[in-house]
Design a protein that fits this description.
Length: about 300
């Protein structure tokens, strides 16, 4: 079973739009959305959720007031300002001189455990933290594994790994030949978790100076993990000169340009209606995506035969 990962060096290049369009064209596949910090592939695929599962990230500190002796060592030791103090007031509204009680701001807590280490009474414990949810859904275009990370939560790389594991499991159960994954933007931890071990990465870029710069960063990351790369230039006709520069860069570095998608108002209409482009249009952009998909199939077959 092969894995095609669609990524970009920055948000807003059309990565999810391209992924959804490919999902409507592909057969015998499982879909995954690894952009767990801001998942939006489901907006175009209209999934029906079949399974909701909890995701626990790193542990976070909790103070049990029954055992707290108000020594304040946790407050002094915390470097993230996650330990907060509640100072009680007298009836006249003036603050008392005692140290008051302490509690943990879960949004600020980094889970380092220093407060639990310095607490002399064992009042601070590290507890499992519900950081988000992952889902298995059915769409008109196949099974979809996706997730939602909670606000200000970390360990998105760990959640990405869980999504990929479940997508592989579903693929094996369904005898799928391909997993198509909508990856996170950038080059950070979630991207690395999405990228390692995939068959091919399709990098969606745009004809701008920033697009060229971000493309180069993603290509270097993929090269580090020995992942083959194909390039898609989205809305290439809005800046033909910049598009030619990107093509020249790809030629010089041995990268294949799988496709060039023109600006097309049909893309906007598809997004407004919440459907994949290739399921509702036969315009220029949809035809370009079809041609790109044919090119990607050839590339995947060559990689599979190596």
């Amino acid at each position: 079973m092969q894995e095609l990962l669609v990524i970009s060096g920055k948000g807003g290049t059309g990565k999810t739009t391209v992924t959804a369009a490919l999902a409507a064209l592909a057969e015998d596949k499982v879909l995954a959305d690894c952009d767990v910090d801001a998942a939006d592939l489901h907006l175009l695929l209209r999934p029906e959720v079949e399974s909701v599962n909890e995701f626990y990230g790193s542990k976070k500190a909790v103070i049990n007031p029954k055992f707290c002796n108000l020594c304040g060592r946790c407050l002094e030791a915390c470097r993230f300002d996650a330990v907060l103090q509640v100072v009680s007031e007298k009836a006249d509204g003036k603050a008392r001189s005692d140290r008051g009680s302490f509690y943990i701001d879960s949004l600020a807590c980094e889970g380092c455990g220093v407060c639990a280490l310095v607490c002399p009474t064992g009042a601070v414990t590290m507890e499992p933290n519900l950081a988000g949810y992952w889902y298995i859904s059915e769409t008109p275009y196949g099974s979809l594994v996706h997730a939602q990370l909670g606000l200000a939560e970390e360990n998105s790389g760990k959640l990405v790994t869980k999504v990929r594991q479940e997508a592989r499991r579903l693929g094996e159960e369904n005898n799928a030949r391909l997993i198509i994954t909508d990856g996170p933007p950038g080059i950070g931890c979630p991207v690395i978790s999405s990228l390692t071990g995939v068959t091919l990465a399709l990098v969606v870029t745009e004809p701008t100076a920033a697009g060229r710069h971000d493309l180069e960063r993603v290509v270097k990351l993929a090269d580090h993990f020995h992942v083959p790369v194909s390039v898609c230039i989205n809305k290439y006709d809005l800046a033909p000169e910049k598009s030619r520069e990107i093509e020249a860069y790809c030629y010089e570095t041995g990268l294949s340009v799988a496709g060039k998608i023109p600006y097309d108002i049909d893309v906007v209409r598809a997004l407004v209606n919440g459907v994949p482009l290739t399921s509702c249009s036969r315009g220029a952009a949809a035809k370009a995506v079809q041609a790109m998909w044919d090119s990607l199939l050839v590339r995947l077959e060559k990689i599979g035969n190596q």
